[in-house]
Predict the structure.
Amino acid sequence: MKRTYIAAAAVAALALTGLSAHASCVDPRNAGSQAAPLNFSRPSQPQFGQNAGENIVGTWHVVYTTEGAISGEAFIQWHSDGTEWENINYPVLGGNICLGSWKTLDRWHVYRNHFGWLYNNGLLAGYFNETETDLVAFDGNSYSGSNTTTLNFYPVPPATTPTVIVLTGTATATRIAP
């Protein structure tokens, strides 16, 4: 019984130390506090679609780097209707759900136009737009690409102009098998 209380207290302490809010799905400014990347070692069945648009559909584990450092991990679902949905490992009060649309560029590449809100301690602080071009592996089990993220922070009085930050990075993804 005593061991259970100690374990529960340790878990609660660890959980509470990670509750500081950050800005939305693309806040790469806190790269040092991110956990080590997950490893999905279960192999998935090859997709072997006719093109990148067919091969991208499904659920993915994605590791992002921004300015050369790991900035987040996400689960992304790419849908056959050209929409996508993402849940990233950022605190909820900072915003961790984003969405967008995508299109096939050619047999091997897709282009994603992704949006989300920026929050500061649960208060709306702005929005972001990430554009990304990805190379989808021939077997449909991985992709990688480069992205540009534009953070648009609303002005905080006495400022009257928004703050805009543009960052570049990469994405590396592995399919999660159904």
Remarks:
- The chain has one domain: 22-176.
